[in-house]
Amino acid sequence: xxxxxxxxxxxxxxxxxxxxxxxxxxxxxxxxxxxxxxxxxxxxxxxxxxxxxxxxxxxxxxxxxxxxxxxxxxxxxxxxxxxxxxxxxxxxxxxxxxxxxxxxxxxxxxxxxxxxxxxxxxxxxxxxxxxxxxxxxxxxxxxxxxxxxxxxxxxxxxxxxxxxxxxxxxxxxxxxxxxxxxxxxxxxxxxxxxxxxxxxxxxxxxxxxxxxxxxxxxxxxxxxxxxxxxxxxxxxxxxxxxxxxxxxxxxxxxxxxxxxxxxxxxxx
Length: 268
Fold this sequence. Notes:
6% of the residues lie in helices and 41% in strands.
């Protein structure tokens, strides 16, 4: 076997800045996955690996764990996500490789494709906005489409980053994900998300709530730790941590008659 860390130095200077400690730790994490670990790239013959270049790349097809209206997005920062146009939600996000399109582009193209990369997190546990009678009311189990929400498509910014648009009653919502390469430590992946809710023409009797998380929620210095898998913080909204039907949930009421802009940051 070759000595990859001769004299305590790594031969791969472009991975984690050449830091041997981080590289060795990553190898152990991969080995601990056992049979659940994804195979290294290049082993599968006939793979069609999609990736972003200077601009994001969109891939609309059938994905595992989301509805048939999933929209995959790969970003140059090696952060990827699936936005679900049925639930009107940011379904999940992950790191590194995007999608192997060979399942859909070869032969009959049947089946649902899973993310090709790693560190997959589930972001929105359900449709993230709902009109409720009170902040502690039960969250609807139906998808946004079943609730009558209207998906208004997406538009691309000058740099190719998509902004997803939809309507919830008289509320007009724009969801704009925007990843960063890494956080200040250079280790954790960061995904910023700006959500703009235009409620300027809303009847005061319609009270909309935003639910950014539900499940195992722990208050930490930087915001909240969600299900032990990622951290989130919020600007522009003072979320309330509630216990609804035996489950913790974060919620925030949207004020009618104005435009509200929320910035959510996820780290994992």
